[in-house]
Design brief:
Strand content: 15-25%
CATH architecture of the largest domain: 3-Layer(aba) Sandwich
Distance between the termini: 39 Å
CATH topology of the largest domain: Rossmann fold
Helix content: 25-40%
CATH class of the largest domain: Alpha Beta
Number of helices: 14
Low-confidence stretches: 502-506
Oligomer: single chain
Strand order of the largest sheet: 12-13-16-17-11-18-10-19
């Protein structure tokens, strides 16, 4: 029987963010399933939108035996601590070694991990796994669409396959694609030729959404390029907030011959580069966005939804800045917003009780320039233990734990306050504290794009606002130091010129 060792270790690192990822953050999961080991991995990885879950489903249908090691993921943040990385990777590699005779390894990784001691977290992980299993065993990896792919990742894996949707509704599908490719490798005994290309400009995440052009069309054309000669082909727009050499978009192709792989990769590169002018759009200031939303709401039958994109915890923000809340209150909007991460305020609301008024210094504790706690008296409208299921397309039925939570009201603005961080990408993240999102005039979500999977069907119009936060909508405003020389730091933007040498791994 074919035996496959599997594991997962996912983190999207914003090196400009204020808070690092500790081992405890991976234990909790922060919107991902909590850390799971051994046979429990196969119990958890079922019918949820995670790469490993899709792989498990497909492989079991093939009749293969799975040897699970470890699954660990945490909310995007600053660097993964050395302690967390070493403990998790060591356990995963040891689990692969202890699996006994195996035919292949599959890993569910993100592709944009930076640790305190390794710029290229996934490159280091794959190097260690490859050393443990030798050169002959196939190693196949699913990656996030936001992966910052490095030459080292390409070298050590036999195939990298990235998501094709943002919002990420195809994470499990990508795991299934990895299973199909691995089956092809095992049946044919063939190692496919690799082609890897890094593109010359960063793409802000707000304009990577695959519901819109140009990205939607790029992925449609990419899929059409796959064939028997090129069984898998990926475009990763990248996560443009990781300050290291290999940050940025990339294309990677696997072909029967080197010529097949090269031709497919070059076609996608030309396609993406031809759309450089299109990777941009209008971003509003908080007051501009709120005022426009209020005007649009007068004649709207559905909510106007604003992305508080720069404080997106899915991109390393702490989900606690108050710029958009202030704009809502200042303009006397009727609205709901969330989730503001503030365990102390949530605790105070629970102590006060439903119906009470409570004076708080809400949010603003992450130290973002231009931001501060919002000092105000709120009405406690609803309380929750923070446990619920998120059934929408992004979370895909995942069990959520936001910790003690509350709905607080000031004027006609309702605020979801939680004790853990997760981007507001599911309607249930309003409902769990008693807010019906479809009944609101305006919704302000701390998310960039993922919210669109569940909220676009209920939205009259979507707007993007830039209040202070850790993930600037304009990548050119970040203080880059370690990118590769010559890359443009936004579409049609200035070229990066290093002022100091990049740090090295190790």
């Amino acid at each position: 029987m074919t035996r496959i060792a599997v594991g997962g270790f996912l983190h999207e690192t914003n090196t400009f963010a204020p808070t690092k990822a500790t081992y405890d953050d991976f234990v909790h999961g922060g919107g991902w399933p909590s850390m799971t080991r051994g046979a429990d991995v196969l119990k958890v990885m079922r019918k949820i939108n995670v790469g490993l879950a899709g792989f498990v489903e497909a492989v079991e249908a093939n009749g293969w035996e799975l040897v699970p090691t470890l699954f660990a993921a945490a909310s995007p943040s600053a660097h993964v601590s050395k302690d967390a990385y070493e403990r998790i990777v060591t356990e995963m590699v040891n689990g692969i070694v202890a699996a006994g005779p195996i035919d292949a390894v599959y890993l569910d990784l993100h592709g944009a991990m930076v640790t305190e001691h390794h710029d290229d977290g996934e490159g280091e992980t794959l190097a260690r796994v490859r050393k443990a299993i030798g050169r002959d065993l196939p190693l196949v990896v699913s990656l996030d669409l936001h992966a910052n792919v490095s030459p080292e990742m390409i070298e050590h894996a036999d195939a990298l396959i990235a998501y094709r949707t943002y919002p990420h509704v195809d994470m499990a599908d990508t795991g299934r694609a990895c299973a199909r490719h691995l089956a092809l490798m095992l049946k044919s005994g063939q190692r496919f030729a690799k082609a890897f290309r890094q593109l010359p400009f960063l793409i802000p995440i707000s304009w990577q959404c695959t519901n819109d052009q140009p990205t939607q069309g790029i992925y449609q054309k990419l899929a059409a390029l796959e064939s028997d000669a090129v069984p898998t082909l990926s475009f990763a727009p990248g996560f443009p907030a990781a300050d290291f050499r290999d940050c940025g978009p990339s294309v990677f192709a696997y072909g029967r011959t080197q010529a097949d792989a090269d031709a497919a990769a070059d076609k996608v590169v030309a396609l993406v580069e031809g759309h450089e002018d299109d990777f941009d759009g209008r971003i509003y200031s908080p007051d501009e966005g709120v005022q426009l939303a209020m005007e649009l709401a007068k004649s709207a039958s559905k909510p106007i939804i604003i992305a508080d994109t720069q404080d997106n915890p899915g991109a390393g923000g702490d989900s606690d800045t108050t710029g958009m809340l202030r704009a809502l209150v200042r303009n006397r909007a009727s609205a709901a917003t969330g989730v503001i991460y503030d365990p102390q305020s949530a605790k105070a609301a629970h102590a006060a009780g439903i119906g009470a008024t409570v004076t708080l210094a809400l949010g603003g504790k992450s130290g973002i320039p231009g931001d501060a706690p919002y000092k105000e008296t709120f009405v406690v409208e609803q309380l929750s233990d923070g446990k619920f299921v998120a059934p929408g397309p992004y979370f895909g039925g995942r069990d959520m734990d936001m910790g003690p939570s509350a709905c607080l009201r000031v004027g006609d603005v309702r605020v979801v306050v939680g004790s853990y961080k997760a981007q507001l990408a599911d309607q249930s993240m309003y409902r769990y504290v008693g807010i019906e999102p479809t009944a609101q005039k305006i919704l302000v979500n701390k998310s960039s794009v993922h919210f669109r999977a569940d909220f676009e069907p209920i939205a009259e119009k979507l707007l993007i606002c830039a209040a202070p936060g850790a993930m600037p909508a304009d990548t050119a405003t970040l203080p880059w130091k370690h990118l590769r020389p010559g890359i443009r730091i936004r579409p049609n933007g200035p070229v990066f010129t290093p002022t100091s040498p990049s740090r090295t791994n190790g």
